[in-house]
């Protein structure tokens, strides 16, 4: 199996490691919030009072700063509520204009303060935006800065100078909007800094807020920590924004942040210009000619979604051989290549982009004429978001869904890929709570290298993050804090020797005495140096990063260790630890079932005997406008014949392949690992065993992995018989 782009945000938590040194050296001296902004003392009725000038100010900022004529959808209602002191949850479709719902209040706060004369200059605080999309937040900040608005991001690509400049703006009370990724909330220095922002956090905006819900299709463990952060920094109000939220997910968001029912603003996702078409076949090969003739008949900017990275290349090549202008796009490509591809797609009007879900977030192109699904999307939420990119100019656009029996397997593989074996989870939790950790006092620190844990316990990075998040949020046992580097190495320039020789500071002495020179690189064990000299490690890290900024050395920190503080007495016995691991595992099993259920819902939509547009709207707690029961422009409405899901014929048990796997794979401690290899699902241990290149890998991909909800799990059970218990 090739790589799946299973995170449409394209974010790697490793990115955040780059900023650790910077955060370490944060001096935390910014002014504390002034007593005058302690609105908490005011009665709530007064706090929520809407100033009569609010809307006038908001509208003039909309026209003057953003050059737009009028508010759209429910922007005006949301902004008015926020300016009145209330919190809100906003469910607008993609491209609906969610950003303005927090950008405008961010600029109006200081204007209202002036009118009300409640705060001094520079005391109006900031709007903090938490968003998982680093590339998108950078684009937004660039656009704001171009409009003369003081906005900045704290992200891994910032130089120390840029970071310090942002800190200066925070201290001076000049900054209006600050953007960061949710992973940053693990950084202690950052949390402290936000608690002490001058003027306070007037508004916390949570983008892609559906990630907070465990019922959602894109749950991200780090999102669970945002609600706690919201309390800790005492933000005055919160706005949660998403393009896809079922009623259950919206409720979850509101409950998590204490948003009242009247704070939920939802607009219809129904789009009358989108023709929702579905076609099915037993075999994939029959679908290619149909795709080619569709694309020939419907020219214009097109996105074709597939599941695997490899499929993007294969299908793009096939399309090119038929004379189409097609390119492939997936998360595994180098960033400059991806940027060039996105630019080209935005620029020209005849390109077909064959892509994984990594393509599309932030693609704001009005005239996309076709969105094709050549594999089954993972959920109705993903489908709705992806087709929502078509026809933003209001002109008729086609959303074609080609479904085939063979793809059902791929979808199952996708859904099952994340669940590790119970043994992996038990071993991981036992490793976190090893004999040393369980003796730690409250506030004691557990340090772990997550990269090694992934390899040692055969767990994908997202799953490992989930285990830690559950230990933190569900079990309240530990709390993530700023990760640290264990190794610092650097190359020196000719000035280095004289500069370091004359540096009499304690940190300078630490570098002088403890850095060891190898052939080209110097190596410094910061922890040892700090312990021996009795100084904080932060000072040494700061010294190194200063030398690096001043181009005296070229610094390369490495070996990230995640650090967790003990917050409650930890389970001490093997049984106690296993109980926690098993509780975590059963939640993971439930999520696997839900992922399969979501894929089923997707299939039911297009094979059902009802209007696609209506079924989709109802999934999101909505309906067709004007009480209509049919849209008139989907396959059901146009044919009134259900699309048949054609299952491939059942496959007889392949004993030869089974025996070959047992022969090729030495492992006998994990049945799920063997089943994964047979099915063709990659994992850190599968890769370490060099299985993906072995002919047995995926040799039983046409078999049932396991029968859902049944004790008869063909492959898994068969392998379990060969595993030592
Ligand atoms: N009231 C308005 N009038 C005109 N244009 C607007 C208005 N509000 C937003 N826009 C424009 O609509 C486009 C989409 O806005 P925005 O990026 O905020 O959407 P979004 O809801 O965040 O979408 P996504 O879910 O894709 O992130 C932007 O180009 C924005 O400038």
TrEMBL record:
The keyword Nucleotide-binding applies. CDD domains: DEXHc_RecQ4-like (cd18018). Its EC number is 5.6.2.4. It is an enzyme of class 5 (isomerase). Belongs to the helicase family. RecQ subfamily. PANTHER family: BIFUNCTIONAL 3'-5' EXONUCLEASE_ATP-DEPENDENT HELICASE WRN, DNA HELICASE RECQ FAMILY MEMBER. This is ATP-dependent DNA helicase. It comes from Cudoniella acicularis. The lineage of its organism: Eukaryota, Fungi, Dikarya, Ascomycota, Pezizomycotina.
């Amino acid at each position: 199996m090739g790589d799946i782009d299973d995170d449409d945000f394209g974010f790697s938590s490793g990115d955040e490691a780059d900023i650790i040194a910077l955060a370490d050296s944060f001096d935390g001296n910014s002014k504390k919030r002034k007593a005058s902004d302690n609105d908490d003392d005011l009665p709530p009725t007064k706090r929520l009072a809407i100033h009569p000038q609010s809307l006038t100010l908001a509208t003039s900022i909309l026209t003057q700063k953003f050059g737009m004529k009028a508010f759209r959808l429910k922007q005006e209602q949301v902004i008015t509520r926020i300016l009145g002191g209330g919190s809100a949850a906003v469910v607008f479709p993609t491209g609906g204009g969610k950003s303005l719902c927090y950008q405008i209040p961010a600029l109006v706060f200081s204007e209202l303060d002036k009118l009300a004369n409640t705060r001094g200059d520079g005391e109006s605080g900031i709007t903090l935006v938490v968003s998982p999309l680093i590339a998108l937040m950078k684009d937004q900040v660039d656009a704001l800065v171009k409009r003369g608005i003081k906005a900045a991001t704290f992200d891994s690509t910032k130089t120390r100078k840029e970071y310090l400049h942002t800190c200066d703006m925070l201290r001076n009370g000049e900054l209006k909007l600050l953007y960061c990724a949710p992973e940053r909330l693990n950084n202690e220095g950052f949390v402290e800094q936000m608690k002490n922002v001058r003027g306070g956090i007037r508004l916390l905006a949570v983008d892609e807020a559906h990630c907070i819900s465990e019922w959602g299709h894109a749950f991200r463990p780090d999102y669970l920590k945002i609600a706690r952060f919201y309390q800790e920094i005492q933000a005055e109000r919160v706005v949660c924004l998403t393009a896809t939220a079922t009623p259950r997910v919206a409720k979850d968001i509101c409950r998590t942040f204490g948003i009242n029912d009247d704070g939920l603003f939802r607009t219809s996702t129904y789009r009358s210009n989108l023709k929702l078409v579905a076609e099915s076949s037993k075999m994939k090969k029959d679908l290619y000619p149909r795709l080619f003739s569709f694309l020939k008949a419907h020219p214009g900017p097109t996105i074709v979604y597939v599941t695997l990275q490899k499929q993007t290349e294969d299908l793009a090549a096939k399309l090119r051989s038929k004379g189409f202008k097609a390119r492939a796009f997936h998360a595994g490509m180098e960033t400059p290549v991806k940027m060039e591809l996105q630019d080209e797609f935005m620029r020209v009007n005849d390109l077909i982009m064959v892509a994984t879900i990594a393509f599309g977030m932030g693609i704001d192109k009005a005239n996309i004429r076709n969105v094709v699904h050549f594999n089954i999307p993972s959920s109705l939420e993903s489908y709705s978001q992806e087709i929502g990119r078509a026809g933003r100019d209001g002109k008729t656009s086609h959303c074609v869904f080609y479904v085939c029996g063979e793809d059902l397997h791929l979808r199952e593989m996708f859904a099952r890929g994340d669940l590790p074996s119970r043994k992996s989870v038990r071993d991981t939790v036992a490793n976190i709570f090893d004999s040393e950790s369980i003796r730690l006092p409250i506030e004691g620190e557990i340090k772990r290298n997550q990269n090694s844990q992934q390899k040692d316990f055969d767990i994908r990075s997202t799953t490992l993050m989930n285990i830690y998040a559950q230990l933190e949020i569900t079990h309240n046992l530990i709390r993530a804090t700023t990760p640290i580097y264990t190794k610092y190495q650097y190359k020196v320039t000719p000035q280095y020797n004289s500069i370091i020789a004359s540096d009499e500071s304690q940190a300078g002495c630490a570098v002088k005495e403890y850095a060891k020179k190898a052939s080209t690189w110097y190596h410094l064990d910061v922890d040892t140096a700090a312990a021996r000299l009795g100084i904080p490690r932060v000072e040494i890290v700061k010294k190194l990063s200063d030398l690096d900024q001043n181009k005296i050395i070229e610094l390369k920190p490495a070996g990230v260790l995640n650090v967790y503080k003990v917050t409650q007495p930890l389970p001490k016995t093997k049984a106690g630890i296993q109980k926690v691991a098993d509780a975590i595992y059963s939640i993971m099993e439930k999520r696997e079932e839900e992922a399969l259920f979501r894929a089923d819902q997707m299939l039911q939509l297009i094979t059902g005997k009802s209007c696609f547009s209506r079924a989709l709207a109802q999934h999101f707690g909505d309906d067709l406008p004007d009480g209509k029961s049919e849209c008139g422009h989907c396959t059901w409405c146009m044919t009134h014949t259900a699309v048949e899901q054609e299952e491939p014929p059942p496959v007889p048990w392949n004993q030869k392949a089974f025996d070959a796997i047992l022969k090729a794979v030495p492992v006998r401690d994990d049945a799920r690992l063997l089943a994964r290899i047979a099915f063709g699902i990659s994992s850190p241990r599968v890769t370490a065993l060099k299985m993906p290149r072995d002919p047995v890998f995926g040799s039983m991909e046409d078999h049932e992995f396991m029968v859902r909800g049944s004790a008869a799990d063909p492959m898994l059970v068969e392998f379990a018989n060969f595993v030592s218990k």
